[in-house]
Amino acid sequence: MSQFCWPVRVYYEDTDSGGVVYYANYLKFMERARTEHLRAMGFEQDGLRRDHGILFAVHSIQVDFKQPARFNDKLEVSAEISEQRRASLTFFQQVHRCGEAQALCSGHVRIACINSASFKPVPIPDFIRSELSRVC
Fold first, then answer.
1. Which of the residues are catalytic?
2. Could you say which architecture CATH assigns to the domain 3-135?
């Protein structure tokens, strides 16, 4: 499946008292990459809610931290769909310092397709599945 990459710059507000990126901020960086990946395929989160009554919500996440990012680093965050189920997608994601092969962190994030009113799982609509199969 195709990999999508999104650039991120580390700002002072992203760091902790030790001068490194606070661990929870990697999850924010990954969220941005997933959102931009869906946007690049033509799916805006607010439009999916408004026009189709669905949302994508994080169901589960597993992240491994290997090396720290620091203030002012240029990062690249990847998002690759590694598994498609009836009502969920699993993304494999990595955060790299630009120009370096070693991942700073990596993880699997499973997002569920849910009804925006009931918050119960629903099948991913066919129009999204067909775009996913075309792009991925």
1. 16
2. Roll (3.10)
